[in-house]
Amino acid sequence: MLNKEKSRSIAEKKLFLSLVGLFVSIGLLQAQNDTMYIMKAGSVIYKQKITNIDSVIFYNLLQVQTDTLYIMKAGSVIYQQKVTNIDSVIFYNPGTNPGINITTVQIPGGTFTMGSPVSEVNHESNETQYQVTLTAFKMSKYEITNAQYAAFLNTKSIGSNGLYTGGTYPFKTLIYATSGSYDWGLHYTGGQWLPVTGYENNPVIKVTWYGAAEFATYAGGRLPTEAEWEYACRGNTTTPFNTGNCLSDVQANYLWVYPYNTCTNTNTTYPFKTQPVGTYTANSYGLHDMHGNVLEWCNDLLGTYPTTAQTNPTGAVTGSERVFRGGSWYSNAQACRSAYRNGMLPGSNDRIGFRVVGPVVHCLALS
């Protein structure tokens, strides 16, 4: 019996060591050879210079799965963490797109019915249903944060007026500083953009559509189409919210005093400001804050839905307003519905933030 246990132990150690370098190799191919970050809910919980690491190993004693992450140096474990406590492992070079570190999740392709049925409470006329088929895509797990957006602005040397003279949309304002009652965003201080203290990990606000689009390009992605956004928000549901027929005060950040339809909330004293990304439970695709917190820009022009089935639709071909989705901390529940849609001129800002889609650089997501 002891011999069998010893043989098993040796076999497991061989298996463990056979994985040495596997995940470091993946990381180095994506993002140079500077620093590795372990992330949770948009925050760094551990970092280490890659030159101080031999390997990053995901290892389960019974099989190679997703149980525990080990950081190895010279055959010894220098850090370990349950994978369930981690969102991503990022191999990151600060000389390339500093500070963005975007965690993405894979959204599977599929077909769904976009819009809402006439029978849905608060259905609006611009939500006419039609069938949409989408190919798989990646989406940022969280709304883009103040810290991430500030890093982008400073890299691009954007001044206090938020004007970008280069990029895809030259001479457009990307961002407005926050102040007064809604001061949870960015300030321009000492020649650079800085998050308001204590709100570094909150979603960026007062971003124009141009600002969201330029950041997405900088990050190696793009803004989601309206169809991608709704599909990702729903997470295989057909109800008004990805949480079902109600959206409670423990599920999203909105005006809790105005719940949906006949639903009720235990707590009606709502935050009346943004909350850190990841505060509320993710939907079935692993996406946080698809309902509430901040409105989110989509790539599409606002227009009438088509009447026939579409594959990978990109929205209206004419129009002046860009679509935003999801509701905010200042929205009632009905405006947080999966199907709810509205638009603003692309130079507008208000309560709007965003997330990105595409092969965003520097991230290896675990979910």
Q: Give Rg in angstroms.
A: 22 Å
Strand content: 15-25%
Question: In this structure, how is the largest beta sheet organized?
Answer: 4 strands, antiparallel
CATH superfamily of the largest domain: paralog of FGE (formylglycine-generating enzyme)
pLDDT average, as an integer?
86
List its salient traits:
globular, disordered N terminus, paralog of FGE (formylglycine-generating enzyme), 5 helices, single chain, 2 domains, alpha+beta, 367 residues
Give structural notes.
- This protein has 367 residues and is of the alpha+beta class.
- It has two domains: 2-92, no CATH class; 100-367, paralog of FGE (formylglycine-generating enzyme) (Alpha-Beta Complex), CATH 3.90.1580.
- The protein has five helices and 20 strands.
- The strands form seven sheets. Strands 2-1-6-20 form a four-stranded antiparallel β-sheet.
- Strand 1 (35-40) and strand 2 form a beta hairpin.
- It is globular and about 65 Å long.
- The two termini are 39 Å apart.
- The model is unreliable at 1-33, 92-96 and 361-367 (pLDDT under 50).
Question: Can you describe this structure in just a few lines?
Answer:
By secondary structure, this protein is of the alpha+beta class. Helix content is 15%, strand content 23%.
Tell me the layout of helices and strands.
Layout: H1 2-18, H2 22-31, E1 35-40, E2 43-49, E3 55-59, E4 68-73, E5 76-82, E6 88-92, E7 104-107, E8 110-114, E9 130-134, E10 137-140, H3 146-155, E11 163-164, E12 172-173, E13 186-189, E14 192-195, H4 209-218, H5 226-234, E15 295-301, E16 310-311, E17 322-325, E18 342-344, E19 352-353, E20 364-365
Parallel strand pairs: 9-16, 15-19
Antiparallel strand pairs: 1-2, 1-6, 3-4, 4-5, 6-20, 7-10, 8-9, 11-12, 13-14, 15-17, 17-18
